[in-house]
Amino acid sequence: MPETFFGWVLFLLNEYGPVLLKGAVVTFLLALVGTFIGCIIGLIVGIIQTIPVEENDSAVKKTFIAVVKWLLDAYVEIFRGTPMIVQAMVLYYGAMSVFDIDMSPMFAGFFVVSINTGAYMAETVRGGIESVDPGQKEAAIAIGMDHFQIMRCVILPQALRNVMPQLGNNLIINIKDTSVLNVISVTELYFASKSAAGVYYKYFEIFFITCVIYFIMTFTASRVLRWLESKMDGPKDYQLVTYDPMMDPCGAVPLPTKKQKGRF
Fold first, then answer.
1. Cα 238 to Cα 258: distance, rounded to the nearest angstrom
2. What pLDDT is stored for residue 60 in this prediction?
3. How far apart are CA 204 and CA 162, in angstroms?
4. Which residues have CB under 8 Å from 177's CB, separation 6+?
5. Residues in the chain with pLDDT < 50?
6. Can you tell me the distance from the alpha carbon of 253 to that of 232, in angstroms, rounded to the nearest whole number?
7. Cα(189)–Cα(197) distance, rounded to whole angstroms?
8. Around Cβ 82, how many Cβ atoms within 10 Å?
9. Cα–Cα distance between 178 and 111 in angstroms, integer?
10. Do residues 175 and 24 lie in contact, with contact meaning Cβ atoms separated by under 8 Å?
């Protein structure tokens, strides 16, 4: 048996490396799929929450929209106001005892992460939508666009760039928070680490390895999302168009770009 800390670390990696790797894959899959589905839920909820109610709308439409918004507000407040570990317990064991639904732990894990993320993303999307200049919405209304056309063509392309940092935060949080799903027997990284640690009672050594694995996943995810944010910003080397092609039949002389100006 090893006698030093790093000796035990290497020994445990050799013994339980495949188990920990499998747990890490399950963790990342839960976080990635749950965040993706949660973003779709949050996008739909955020758009519905911003549907305007006009004075000349019928009473039926006003009542229907008010009820739907109230239900969505209740969903957001409940799932933002309760811990994910409690939601997992209520969903998994409650569905079994109340509705006699015997769902698999993995399905319950995907479901919990998705609806929890959706509640947070709904408020993020709503904030992103409201951050866009109201004048753009007014201009779209002036040319005859309805609410969903305005969202699709004008508001959302700008709002999505604004919410990208929060989307990345949610993915990183979900990578870490999936550890609570061990209470419903999801064999993610924390569950695998706890099982391995119980064999030799080397909790510090095994969870040191687990900590490193979590850091690698979160650091990699944050760097990839930073790269995506930079791509959404567009190229920094751009050229302004300062002519009207209808008034200049001979064509335009291209202006030097920022990069080209630096050469002179």
1. 7
2. 86
3. 40
4. 84, 113
5. none
6. 28
7. 12
8. 13
9. 12
10. no
Question: From CA 17, how far away is CA 10, in angstroms rounded?
Answer: 9
How many other CB atoms are there within 10 angstroms of residue 19's CB atom? 16
Amino acid at 258: K
- Tell me if residue 217 falls in helix, strand or coil: helix
Q: Which two tokens stand for residue 219?
A: 């650091």
Q: Which of 229, 236, 230, 228 is nearest to 259 (CA)?
A: 236
Amino acid 155: pLDDT: 83
CA distance 223 to 202: 32
Euclidean distance between the first and the last CA atom of the chain, given in angstroms as a whole number:
68
The whole-angstrom separation of Cα 93 and Cα 102 is: 9
DSSP letters spanning 122-173: HHHHHHHHHHS-HHHHHHHHHTT--HHHHIIIIIHHHHHHHHHHHHHHHHHH
Q: What is the CA radius of gyration of the chain?
A: 25
Per-residue model confidence as pLDDT tens digits over 152-187: 888 888 888 778 888 888 899 999 999 999 899 888
Q: How far apart are CA 209 and CA 213, in angstroms?
A: 6
Task: Take residue 264 and report the two structure tokens written for it.
Answer: 């002179």
Instruction: Show the CA angle centred on residue 173, arms to residues 170 and 177, nearest 5°.
Output: 130
Of residues 128, 158, 147, 108, the one with CA closest to residue 43:
128
Residue 160 and residue 43: Cα distance in Å, rounded? 9
Report the alpha-carbon distance of residue 128 to residue 51 in Å, rounded: 14
In angstroms, the CA 3 to CA 68 distance is 63
Residue with tokens 């990699």: 220
Q: 């992103």: which residue's tokens? A: 128
How far apart are the C-alpha atoms of 216 and 223, rounded to whole Å?
A: 11
Interatomic CA distance for residues 27 and 109, integer angstroms:
10
